[in-house]
Amino acid sequence: MKYFIFLLCLATSIVSLAIHAKEEGGFSLSSTRMVVDLNKKDNSVLSLSNTSDKDFLVQSWIEDLKGDSVIWEEFIIVPEVFVVKANSSAQIKVQYIGDKHSLSGRENVYYLSVKNIPKRKKDSDKNALLISTRQQIKLFLRPEGVEQKSELSLDGIDVKYQGENQSLLLTNNNLVSLNFRKIIYNNIDYHDKSIILPGESISVPADNYNQEVSIEVINDYGSVKTIVMPVN
Question: Counting beta carbons within 10 angstroms of the beta carbon of residue 60, is it exposed (0 to 12), middle (13 to 18) or buried (19 or more)?
Fold first, then answer.
């Protein structure tokens, strides 16, 4: 019984603190994506903003797309662990230090995770729980010789209707990844938010054939461009 009461009190405290944290908030990232372009210099910078009245301890790391493997050997994050003072901002820089020649000549995609932990105030309850949060954005590693313009080229996207599977197959034959926010086919919205890596495909259900498909594509800057493509 005592154990049950303890769990109930703990759950109540967590909910209360979560609501309190949501009200205070104040910690944000400047972008939903980062491009580490090996064709350029000093472009892999992410800004952090702390508009709250408390300090945050920040830690960053890079994971693969599955989120189950941390990448330690190929990247450096500067700084990796640091404090963002109340009502201030900071920046982190990501640098690729791996073997450039080992890259496949195609863009690779990772996740950049940023974890922040609020600093306990001196006059606060020592028994209070501190809730950390983790924000995750996509990190695109673009090898030398592979370029992406702000206006995406769609020549390398192949769209086919597969009647036997009642699906629409989208194939990316480009050297860069394609990030879709929405696919509209037969007046049905598919909020897929998929990334199609170079040389890979995705499929969405499609009961009937239509000669056109509307796709919302996200570019390097996070802007969305709607394009209409023919269906083979």
Answer: buried
pLDDT value of residue 1: 47
Which tops the pLDDT comparison, 217 or 191?
217
Q: 46-105: per-residue pLDDT in tens?
A: 999 999 988 999 999 999 987 777 888 899 999 999 999 999 999 999 999 988 888 888
Q: What's the chain's average pLDDT?
A: 82
Q: Give me the amino acid identity at 139.
A: L
Q: Is the pLDDT of residue 20 over 70?
A: no
Q: What domains does the chain contain, in order, with CATH numbers?
A: 24-142 (2.60.40.10), 157-230 (2.60.40.3970)
- The pTM for the full model equals 0.79
Nearest partner of 131 among 17, 45, 1, 33, judged by Cα: 17
The tokens of 213 are what? 């498909």
Token representation of residue 119: 């600093």
